[in-house]
Amino acid sequence: MSKLLRIGVLASGGGTNLQAIIDRCQDGSLAAEITVVIANNPGAGALERAGNAGIPTLCINHRDFSRREDFDSAVVEALQDAGVDLVVLAGFMRIITPTFIAAFPERVINIHPALLPAFPGLHVQQQALDYGARFSGCTVHFVDGGVDTGPIIIQAVVPVLPEDTAEALAARILEQEHRIYPRAIQLIAEGRVSVDGRRVIISPACPATPKALVNPATEG
Ligand code: GRF
Question: Which residue CA neighbors atom 14 of ligand 1 most closely?
């Protein structure tokens, strides 16, 4: 068996993306091994999910650090101790510093519940509804110095429906997050992902995607 990609997952919340990654590692469709899960808050459900799967966990509470850089240094050290090749932010609600990114150049990825570059930041499902967007979705991207600005690896699109609440739209998006995050990690594990400026190159390329999506439909 070829070497598994060693990943470290950072989370703050419930950890459903973490769970999707755990499940894909366990069923063999993702050639990766989660070597550590780190949460910045002790109540993160992600810690329990990792514990149930026998994955080492750490809680590094950002409230214990007066400077953002010191918190980041502690997290970087823990990731390095765990021999991590790729850092996966899965609902990690802290902005990471340049020091962190420098320790893992082009090796930190994030998932965001909107179609970037539209709606970066927080409360983005409500923002998509308020704007009247006909589609939203999710984006896996490399993390650079900005907020949700790094090169895009993969996106999934979902329609925004007339009766949608932010919660309903978030649930529809989350379902797709669980598909595309493991897929992005698998592409990286296969060594198929490189960055050329803003563009991410997948080589060999993936089969073609659907030609177009239209909402509302052109018939009826
Ligand atoms: C996801 O929507 C993710 O995109 C966002 O926070 C949510 C985390 O969900 N950044 P979970 O903790 O993976 O369930």
Answer: 16
